[in-house]
Protein 1
Amino acid sequence: VQLQASGGGLVQAGGSLRLSCAASGGTPSTYAMGWFRQPPGKEREFVAAITWTGSFTNYADSVKGRFTISRDNSRNTVYLQMNSLKPEDTAVYYCAADSPRGSGGTYYRGFGAWRHDMDYWGKGTQVTVSS
């Protein structure tokens, strides 16, 4: 699976950005998808994740109410709408995907696992929020 993130840039505090992640190869419409970020000088951290159907989502407390993750399986694309951006949201943002397990690919690890790691990673896109 190849993941290509785009949409990063420079924005003022209070502004908005929408990140996109296009997936190719494998069967991305069956994968859970997520966004992570790595602020300068810090460890990578979980931002948001979404199940393969798009029915369920999960967010880090720091972005809850401001960020929205969504997906369009017809386009093999996942989005991260970021509103009310703050300087502390400045980071490299990474798109990730997690494949189902088990015979027939019917078992999903769940948010507890996805918040820590996923199977496939794309190159990041830089988001810079100025104060």
Protein 2
Amino acid sequence: QVQLVESGGGLVQAGGSLRLSCAASGRTISRDAMGWFRQAPGKEREFVAACNWNGGTTYYADSVKGRFTISRDNAKNTVYLQMNSLKPEDTAVYYCAADPRGYSTGGAYTTQEWYDYWGQGTQVTVSS
């Protein structure tokens, strides 16, 4: 089992930046694909970004492409989401997730059903 804990959320003005962290414990995530998802009030949870086991391949939702960057430090068992040029529509609870099959697939999925482990989420609020 792996436990994921997100941090770094908060209140920021439009145009600002935040860096989310997802710290894993219980086992190494160095062979997992990792993803970030978000859920805004009244909406379904949606894909934001994902990376393969070594961070060499990344995927982004069109809505965040060019503004958000996913990265990972396997030595620290941590995944990051750097969010720049934030917009009010980025307001949501952000979740990180782990897919333990990542090493065997070599890539990462953009759909939630592939991810077995989830954090509790961190709130990001962007004011206009």
Protein 3
Amino acid sequence: VQLQASGGGLVRAGGSLGLSCAASGMIFSLNTMSWYRQAPGKQRELVARITPNGMTTTYADSVKGRFTISRDNAKNTTFLQMNSLKTEDTAVYYCHASIIGLEYWGQGTQVTVSS
């Protein structure tokens, strides 16, 4: 199983970035997909989650109304659109897949928001 995250970078506060996570070696459409992030000196936290059929999404309170998680099961890819970025959104963002009894992590992509 491989989760390849991409799309991170440097952006000014108020700007936007889109992350992608391409999955392989798994039945993507059966997995719940999530994005987590970890800022320096802080614990890894859940940012957003989407169910296998894409019908239900969950967001951390800190990103509600600014971030949108989505998925394309035909392309084995999940996305995180981040708008109105804040400096406190700076972190390494990780793609995560889970299915009963199993979970997988991507390698992480750095998002840096400057003031």
Protein 4
Amino acid sequence: VQLQASGGGLVRTGGSLRLSCAASEQTFSVGFMGWFRQVPGKEREFVAYIDKRGGTTYYADSVKGRFTISRDNAKNTVYLQMNSLKPEDTAVYYCSGSGDSRSRLITSAVRDAAMYPYWGQGTLVTVSS
């Protein structure tokens, strides 16, 4: 499975961006998916999770209420709508796929980058103050 993330860029504080993640095969078969982010010198940080059908989502506390993850399995694409952006949201954002079709949400598991064998190349989001 290959994942291609896009949509990053430079935006001012309070602005919005929508990231996209296109999969090389049916996203339904990719299982649950996630978005993570990373800044230099820090570990990759969980941002959001969505189950394979798009019915269950889960967010890091730092983005809850501002970011929305969604998926369109007909288009083999997962999205991350980011609103009310803050400078601390500046990072390289990665989409990820688990290959796991289980629907039960185990928050400690889906927050773990090791659960995701498939990764996109990352897209840079810069939020200026």
